[in-house]
Amino acid sequence: MSSQAYAPYRGYRIEVHVTPVAKRQIGGGARRYRVSWEVSSSQHPMQTVVSFPEQFEFLSEQHAFKYGENRAHTYIDSIECTRTATV
Q1: SS3 for 42?
Q2: CB 12 within 8 A of CB 76
């Protein structure tokens, strides 16, 4: 499993994990990648806000990392939007 931590985003820390998965196909095997991501507070990094495994498989590790980062940004944006709407 490979992991990447990203720069803080709107007061949250993002970490994306990508795991290679071997798939059998006609004519041989193929490698796919699964992604999961987690969001934690920048002030309290050990306190995870959410951890989410995606159901998709990706053809490249780079695409998996980018997808995980984008999904985490979307989640954080929704938290901030909800927080702003309730204030």
Answers
A1: coil
A2: yes
